[in-house]
Specification:
Elements: H1 2-22, H2 35-38, E1 47-53, H3 58-71, E2 75-80, H4 84-93, E3 98-101, H5 107-111, E4 114-129, E5 136-137, H6 139-147, E6 164-168, H7 173-182, E7 192-194, H8 197-205, E8 210-215, H9 216-219, E9 225-227, E10 229-230, H10 237-241, E11 248-256, H11 263-272, H12 278-283, E12 287-288
Parallel strand pairs: 1-2, 1-3, 5-10, 6-7, 6-8
Antiparallel strand pairs: 3-11, 4-8, 4-9, 4-11, 4-12
Length: 291
């Protein structure tokens, strides 16, 4: 009987010891394995992104900026429509995060430390007054009109009247693209030299004998001017993308070669050049290049 009681006592003491050891088991708090301590949510993107340059890119940059800021409430994207030349210079001197150019960079600009990234393609529409009888011109005829070899509309199928050529200012990406393609570099004889796409459209709309050029995205939906076909091909998104429309140019984001953008500027750049932005670019009248 005594041996039985001793055995029971021994078992009871053993169980107590085991229970005491179990009470010392470390909790998650003791070992700092709290998931909230180890995994922190990424900080929200914040800051500002300055873009500067091409007036022809206004609709594209406006649409991209609006959506990007809606998705990133802590970021402000600004756009200064100064023209392609000024935008390229702003990227070079660091006064803008991203320069905007509606032309390809020149070899000397690339050699000077700038990088181009094509975000979209744009057709340069050749426009006449809405009441003009002229419907189609060849690239050669357009070149001769702007250099003064053809001076009357009757020479190209229109009513008699002295042709008035309207163009953009020196440094404009639209002008550079137009002159390069039509072979009129530094040879155009302009009655008016204007500093914005909208100004050219208004001038042509107000003069029955005028001819000018403007970005496809700016001309679409206008009933005060008419885009002529060039060599029988209309200026549309489809003809620009497939290359059949002759007068077209790239929309370019300009950055400094080898220099890191701020997190906000890099995020905006990545978004603008991604396929996620394609529908916005299309809606703005340009042709996206991202697949």
């Amino acid at each position: 009987m005594k041996k039985t009681l001793a055995l029971i006592l021994t078992l009871a003491l053993s169980l107590a010891a085991l229970t005491g050891c179990g009470s010392k088991t470390e909790t998650p708090a003791d070992t700092n394995t709290d998931s909230s301590a180890q995994t922190e949510a990424p900080a929200a993107l914040s800051g500002s992104v300055s873009t500067n340059g091409s007036t022809s890119m206004e609709k594209v940059i406006g649409a991209l900026s609006e959506q990007f800021m809606a998705d990133n409430s802590g970021v402000t994207v600004t756009y200064d429509p100064t023209g392609s030349g000024a935008g390229i210079e702003a990227a070079s001197n660091g006064s803008a995060d991203i320069g905007l150019a509606s032309r390809a960079l020149k070899d000397e600009e690339k050699a000077g430390g700038l990088t181009e990234t094509i975000v979209a393609l744009d057709g340069i529409a050749v426009i006449v007054n809405a009441d003009s009888k002229v419907e189609n011109l060849t690239v050669e005829q357009i070149g001769k009109i702007f250099t003064g070899e053809i001076t009357d509309w009757s020479e190209v199928g229109g009513d008699a009247g002295t042709i008035s050529c309207i163009g953009r200012e020196a440094g404009s990406g639209t002008r550079d693209g137009f002159e390069s393609i039509t072979g009129t570099k530094d040879a155009c004889k302009l009655d008016q030299e204007l500093t914005s796409t909208g100004g050219v459209i208004e001038a042509v709309a107000g003069n029955p004998n005028a001819i000018g050029y403007a970005s496809l995205s700016a001309v679409e939906g206008k009933n005060t001017v008419k885009a002529v076909t060039v060599g029988g091909v209309a200026c549309t998104e489809e003809t620009v993308l497939n290359g059949s429309y002759a007068i077209q140019r790239p929309f370019v984001l300009v950055t400094k070669t080898g220099e890191t953008l701020s997190p906000a500027a890099q995020a905006f750049f990545d978004y603008a050049t991604s396929s996620a932005a394609s529908q916005l670019i299309k809606a703005a009248g340009a042709v996206p290049v991202a697949k």
